[in-house]
Amino acid sequence: MQDTTHSRRQFLKAAALSTGALWVPRAQGSSQPRASAAPQELSDSKSADYTLRIQVSPVEIAPNRIISTTNYNGQFPGPLIRLKEGQPVTVDIFNDTDVPEQLHWHGQTVPVDVDGAAEEGTPYIPAHGKRRITFTPGPAGFRFYHTHNRGGANLSAGQYSGQVGPVYIEPREQPSNYDREIFLVLKEFEPTLSRGGDMAQDFLPPVTLKALEEKGEAAMKSSLAKGMSHGYEVGYRSFTINGRMLGHGEPIRVKPGERVLFHVLNGSATEIRSLALPGHAFRVIALDGNLVPNPALVPVLWLGTAERVSAIVEMNHPGVWILGDLDDDDRRHGMGIVVEYSGQKGKGEWVKPAASRWNYLHFGKPTASSPPPDETFEMMFVKDNAADEGFNRWTINGVAYPTTGEMAPASFHLKEGKRYRIRMRNASDDIHPIHLHRHSFELTKISGKYSSGILKDVVMLGGYQEAEVDFVANNPGLTLFHCHQQLHMDFGFMTLFDYV
Length: 500
Ligand SMILES: [Cu+2]
What we know:
Elements: H1 2-19, E1 22-25, H2 26-30, H3 39-42, E2 50-62, E3 65-72, E4 81-84, E5 89-95, E6 103-106, H4 112-115, E7 129-135, E8 141-147, E9 164-170, E10 180-195, H5 210-225, E11 232-241, E12 252-254, E13 259-266, E14 273-275, E15 282-287, E16 290-291, E17 297-298, E18 301-303, E19 308-314, E20 320-324, H6 328-332, E21 336-341, E22 375-388, E23 391-396, E24 412-414, E25 419-426, E26 432-436, E27 441-446, E28 449-450, E29 455-456, E30 458-461, E31 466-472, E32 479-483, H7 486-490, E33 494-499
């Protein structure tokens, strides 16, 4: 059994290295017998199912373009970790760096001790030390792991580094309507700070609220009157998919008629990403790893920081194409990967797609069929321009999470088994990818419209917009809630739930 697992892992690594894409034929993911595991092997204190090493090493993102970054196992992205829902797994995490680290299992319903967030009380992986963790993976679907350290003004720390890797938790029953899977991790490198800069949000439904806009503009005016300019934003010099800049990795090689399931992860610290493949459409079957009630066809994928989209593309338009970001500048600096049909040659063609909008509700049920909540929490998100040494400070209901490393008490209190609604209002012009740890939430109201059946762990909240998500308190312990934009979470945009 251990040999089988080992060889499969070797295979995955070889596949990742040889194709530039993390690809897995479908049968390979579902045909591994695991029931015959010898118990003495599993209890062997010397062998974990997976070993992750946090280390600083060179990563070649294009020929002779070599960056140095903290990563997992000397590679970017970190190795694809394939788990089985409900089957316990042991992971050894070594930290070869000089700073204590946190490794967060994003999107999994794990206990506080495992989750990987100091704010919840997860122990650090000591500098030059090790932690062994054992947990039961779940829920099934596309998850990931990443550092949960604060970056602050240090643009080599936190998720500005290369500490991102994909996780796939195999469901008990595999969907069968595709031929193979390809994992894509989108990630920028070489960050720099700049003052100001706006993120266009014309890809979201245009439903800004006047009251929020007035509140945001009043805050802006008062900070400008005090002489404070716009706070810092982060930009990047290089852009990669699976650690390679566009044109510098192996292409994704496809055959006409093939149905490819793409698992796309936005591993960015701060950016919202888009993805299109000229002449093709994406059938979105899962958001953040959770199957959607209505798998709709879209021309472009949009992903906030830490979001995942799983989508099937039918390869029915032979040629050599660029699967890339809509932003010309970012794509020219590397945010893309070539898709090459068998028998076709060439450089990779890009065609700008027609304008479209990204609306989560396309993939849900257009009715409010979710049960009513036992309690609703109101949350208002506000930006204090450049208020923290040139960085924007963020508050939830007037409170910024401390940036000093001290532990903050929980602001919201849960009772196990109850259903809660969070009504979020964004009084800023920024888009916030809002994340809840250790739980999934259901989108119940987005852009003024009701919905049900879409389960996620990150949701983009547009500038001056509001949204409602529901979750069931089913995983006791401190639970972190934060914006996943590193600049926002590092400067106050976090709060905690606890169970009473
Ligand atoms: Cu944010």
